[in-house]
Amino acid sequence: MGLWHSKAGAGAHGTQETDDYMDTSTESPGLASDCEHISPKESTVEAAREVHLLQGAQGITIANSTLRVVGRDSIVHNHHYNVQIEHTKDGEIRPVCLRGLDRTFLVADPKDVEKLANWLADINFRDIQMENSGKRTPGTGFWVLEKGVFKIWVQGSKEGPRILWGTGMPGAGKTIIASLVVEHLERIAKDNPDVCVVFAFCRYTEPIPVRDILAALLRQLLEDYPSVFPFIKALYDRHHLKKIRPLQHELLNVLQQITTSGLFRSTFFVLDGLDEASAAIQFDLIQVLASISAHFFLTSRPLEQWRDQAPDAEFFTIEAPSSDISLLVEQKISRIPALRKLLENNETLKTEVVAKVLHNSSGMFLVASLYLDMLQSCFSVRDLRRSLEHLPKGIDGMYDSTMEQIASQSGADMALLALTWVTFAERPILLDELPYAVAIDPETCKFDPERLVDSSVLVSLCRGLITVEKDPWGARLRLITQHTTI
Hints:
- The chain is α/β, with parallel strands linked by helices.
- The protein folds into four domains: 1-108, no CATH class; 116-317, 3-Layer(aba) Sandwich (Rossmann fold); 322-408, no CATH class; 409-486, Arc Repressor Mutant, subunit A.
- Helix content is 42%, strand content 12%.
- It has helices at residues 29-32, 42-46, 110-120, 125-135, 142-145, 148-154, 174-191, 210-224, 229-239, 248-259, 279-291, 322-334, 337-343, 347-361, 365-375, 381-389, 394-408, 412-424, 434-438, 455-461, and strands spanning 60-63, 66-67, 81-83, 96-99, 104-107, 163-167, 195-201, 266-272, 295-300, 313-317, 466-471, 474-479.
- Helix 3 (110-120) runs antiparallel to helix 8 (210-224).
- The longest helix has 18 residues, at 174-191.
């Protein structure tokens, strides 16, 4: 494929062309082979942020100092270019190098970006982020964005902490806080193309090796910031033809190259649930944090054993304020028909419910949410008052009370089977699989189609102890335990 040359329109630099190309050859042999006369220069490393991959590049016009293009990156330039993507017959990924007066712009077909993204990883943390965002009660969590240490950290300056680490007990809302921080950072990045945001979620039910986490982070970078295409292309070139996958240290090396390339003024990584990874993965992730030039926001239960491994981390406690718990209770009451009907004309009783749940939950979203699940079976004011009087305190008491309710209801045997399958299955069980698992007769160990029960009914029978979550592999069921973070 030949290099497409551009004549600049009238401008400050006239129409003279130059061979003064930006260096992309370092660590990118495959890319360099497709571009003519790319000479490595020290000064070009500083200008690396001027290299852009244009999404939707077919027929793009750069004019009047504005690039009109669908994508994250934009180019401000005083000259006029028309860009056409050239395709090879064999489908090889070969970006066009657009040669201008004083810059070389690399242009890749969106299909090539997608091809490399799919090659990198199957894991998509964005689905989990969207699910977590949907779980957050409107108006909650903003206290963390108002913390002085967060405001300093988010500036991305060298004076502030490089690692901001929030710790909290199970059910304190750590995952929701991480999701809110991602949203906040992405809003900043939307208005600042030189700010980069990537994130990952760890779950004890779906252990993900560090290598796969790094690959998924690179995929995010490529999809959201196509300007990193040359780095990923070089990695692809070294492995694709040999039919081998990049090793952990190779993926880490690419991340290090990107974060030190000058493409971004600030790079933010958000990692939720570090405590839910195995001890070996925790250690590897801590080592990764120490080696990447970026700012990190972490959440976990208190992990005292790793404090000395992150000496530059600033720690803070995640505990839901009373106002957030109250908002959660109010919203959940509105979604429980029987409870909403009982309280809609009885503000005094409603205030009692909110106060009792607030007091007994001790700042834990998880416990407050499950308390409301326990109260949804109250159909009269008398039932509600009696339940409030005997509302258990703490997570252990809440579990005991919930199991008593499950055992006393119609369909208790189905609920206990569902809980057993979700608890002891060798791998996380899918929502669609649960009815078939429960339909296996415990006495004969044979599948009985007449025992099939709708999955939504089974989840409901478990009184909030089973939750449906989307993850990189699909809709899976999760047992609510002290390991669960929300």
